Structure formats: C-alpha cells, structure tokens
Amino acid sequence: MAAKNVLDLAKVRNIGIMAHIDAGKTTTTERILFYTGVNHKVGETHDGASTMDWMKEEQERGITITSAAITTSWNDTTINIIDTPGHVDFTVEVERSLRVLDGAVAVFDAKEGVEPQSEQVWRQADRYGVPRICFVNKMDKIGAEFQRCVDMFRDRLGANAMPIQLPIGAESDFKGVIDLIRMKAYVWNDEAALGEMYDTVEIPETHAEAAQEARDQLLETLADADDEIMEMYLEGQEPTLEQLVPAIRRATVAGKAVPVVCGTAFKNKGVQPLLDAIVEFLPSPADVEAIEGHDPKDETEATTLERKPSSDEPFSALVFKIMSDPHLGKLSYVRVYSGVLQAGTQVLNSIKGRKERVGKVYRMHSNKREEIGSVGAGDIVAVMGLKDTTTGETLCDPSNPIVLESMTFPDPVIEVA
Ligand code: GDP
Fold it and tell me: Which of the ends of the chain has fewer CB neighbours closer than 10 A, N or C?
C-alpha cells in the first residue's frame, strides 16, 4: 500500500491563507474545509441522508482548525492548507510557514481593502516569491467595493491584479459573479444545501457590456504578463479556453499576475469558484525549483547540493512545526521536498547529526487523522515519534545527507503606518 500515498505531484497544492485580522481568514478556511468535506462525503457515500447527518454533526461541533496543516481535496487534487500565522510582527513563525508553502490565498475585506497587516504579510510573501490569488471577501457588507479593492492591490501592493470575475451586485444585492474566463454567470442558489452552491446561467443582459469590458481588461493585463498571449493580442486573436487557462496559470506561478476573485465566505458564496482557482492557477510542488542545501560535513557551506521535487530522489524534508496533540502526543509537521518518507524507518537529522526513527505518519484532515505508510515528495504530513528534532531542522536519507538551505531571516519588514 506504500505507493498509494506517493501522490502525483501535479495533483498537490500546498497553500497558505493569509489576511489582516478580521478579514475572514478563519471563516474562509472553515468554509473550504466544510465545503470540500461535504462534497467528498457525497462522492463517497452517494447517500444524501448520511451526508446530511455529517453536515449536521460538523455544524454542531464546528470545524476547528487546530492543526499546523490540514489536508483536504478538490477536483481530484490534494490541498494541504498550512496555517499561516497572522502576526502583526515579523516573526520566524510566519517565515517558516511561507517557506513550506507553494502558493497562497490572500483574503481581504471588501469594504476595508488593503489594511496594514495584509500589506505586511504581502511583502513577506513577495520576499519568498509565493504566487498568490486574492479573495475579496465580505461582498455582502455595506460599503463593499470590488473595484476599489482591485485598485488598492495595484496601488498599495504593486500587484498586477487581474480580476477573473466580475461581481453581480454588492452588499445585500450581491447576487453572483461572472466568470470572465468562461464568460458564464454563477448566481448564488440560496436553497442549495449541498453540491453546487450556484446555478450556472448566461450573463445577464444588464451586465453584458461590463463583462465584455472586464474580459478585455483581463486579456490586456495577461498579455503584459505572458508572451504567448501578448503575441495573440497584437495579432488581434482571441485565446481559446484551452490557451487562456494555462496562460493564467503560467503568469500566476511566475508571480507576474495575481488573479482576483470575490465572495462572501460566511454564506458560502464564492467558495467553490475560489477552490477552482486554487487548483487551476496556484503551483504544484512540481512547478517549484529544486531545493538547495549543503553537505553537513562541509562547514563552509560552499558546495551546493540539490534535490529535485521527485519521489525518485534521495529523501529530504523540513520540520516546520512541532505541536502537542491531545491524543498522539508530540507531532512534527514535515514538508517532504524529495524522495519518500516511510513509517518505521530511520532518517538522519542532519543538523544534529543523529538518526531518528520515524514512528507513525499521519495525514491530518479536518474531521479525522489518517495513518499512512509512506508519503512522497511535495507532500505535507505529521510524524509521530521524532524525539530529538526541533523546528527548522532537516531530515534526510542517512546515506545521502543534506542540510536544506537554512532559513534566511532578512531585514524586518518595514512597519506600515
Ligand atoms: P480572521 O480574523 O481573518 O480569521 O476573520 P474571521 O474569519 O474570524 O472573521 C472575522 C469576522 O468577520 C467574523 O465576525 C465573521 O463572522 C465575519 N465574516 C467572515 N466572513 C464574512 C463575510 O463574508 N461577510 C460578512 N459580512 N462577515 C464575514
């Protein structure tokens, strides 16, 4: 069964959700977990009654996010959500979480737009080159203004903000969104308890002109970020859907454009299109460059070793968080960069120069933990049984030792007034 958990790298997303306090980070994360959980369950049981039971149970219990990384899945893709602390100050903890994720969703309050903390976390993510999607939350709030937020992303954050949606209405009149990629409208279905949370309809007459303008703007922004689209743009060609989606992905992964979507997380509006955007546009571990490190015996750190994001490479991983679980005791959260981590085997802590025995390996879901035998490159899991390893240390194959590039702590982020 070991191979079963070595995932196809292209089908993994390691993401963080970052925001200014109160913008809705917790609500958005909970709705993602709830929504993917419900749909996972639907697929598993084909039984409406048990799904309803599960929903009720979850609603009563509330989904709590107590783990440093939670695994869920959407459209056949495993999504590991890494808790990104929302500290005001520059901290080692924020840096560490940014180090292990490949992409992020930045959540904003549609009325407040860019706030000081969101600006700060944005700059930190810039430093680590983390590709992003912006989610303009609280579209139902009085004073919510999508376009103003987009302008702020450009002016205050210097982001090449690229709306891929146009909201239909705002505040209490927020009725849905127009998908500018597929030129379809999604209208919230307030009655739908399960499954699709919106109905797909044609773009309403009243919004046809605005939608076309926004689509033209999207293509123009994308042309600036992607040579292929620029060429088509200059030749007056309209890209097909099959050309547009990969181009947006290329531009997002390269950090040249930031797709913007919107919704109202606490009413579950816009969560599904957000999930689609995470899977379609944020990078997989396969899109990330090989990680560098040095030989632990080389104190000068002059020689550079490299580990490609592949399960065929020698094992290397970084411990990014240690937590105490009420049932399992000490759990070390690990990002595997290369090779395979197998339960019950010995690995080398290359910083301490000591071998450690890997106990059980778990995937932490929002409502259960799943024991797995092994896990491959690009994935994130919790490991039990590491006695002598602390946060920030490298674990590796004893016969192929490496110390992964040490956490660099650049100058503190400049305070934003
Ligand atoms: P966090 O501090 O970023 O984690 O924010 P929370 O998720 O705790 O949300 C802060 C507050 O905003 C809570 O009172 C939420 O109920 C509320 N909230 C979250 N999402 C929405 C939304 O879409 N619309 C409105 N009006 N309020 C929301």
Answer: C
Half-sphere exposure of 404 (CA within 13 A, CB side): 28
Nearest to 221 by CA among 137, 280, 264, 159: 159
Say if CB 186 and CB 202 are below 8 A apart: no
For the question of an ipTM over 0.95, the answer is: yes
CB atoms within 10 A of CB 70: 22
Q: Are 146 and 170 in contact (CB under 8 A)?
A: yes
Q: Which two tokens stand for residue 104?
A: 């992020």
Given a contact cutoff of 8 angstroms between Cβ atoms, the answer to whether 322 and 365 are in contact is no
Distance CA 72, CA 364 (A): 9
Single out the residue of 133, 135, 141 nearest to residue 169, CA to CA. 141
| Measured distance CA(5)–CA(80) in Å, rounded | 14
Under 8 Å between Cβ of 297 and 403:
no
3-state secondary structure of 14: strand
Point out the ligand 1 atom lying closest to the alpha carbon of residue 265.
Answer: 23
d(C-alpha 73, C-alpha 70), whole Å: 10
Residue 377's nearest CA partner among 325, 299, 317 is 317
345: tokens are 């085997």
Q: Is 24 in the pocket of ligand 1 (CB under 6 A)?
A: yes
Instruction: Pick the atom of ligand 1 nearest to 28's CA.
Output: 7
> Is the pLDDT reported for residue 183 higher than 90?
yes
b (16+ CB within 10 A) / e for 206-241: ebeeebeebbeebbebbbebbeebbebbeeeeebee
For ligand 1, is residue 170 a contact (CB within 6 Å)?
Answer: no
85 lines ligand 1 (CB under 6 A): no
* Structure tokens given for 107: 């959540």
Q: Is 379 in the pocket of ligand 1 (CB under 6 A)?
A: no
Residue ranges with strand state E in 265-357 = 291-294, 305-307, 316-325, 329-338, 340-342, 346-349, 354-357
- Of 130-144, 284-298, 374-388, 395-409, least confident by mean pLDDT is 395-409
| Edge-to-edge strand list for the sheet holding 291-294 | 305-307, 291-294, 403-404
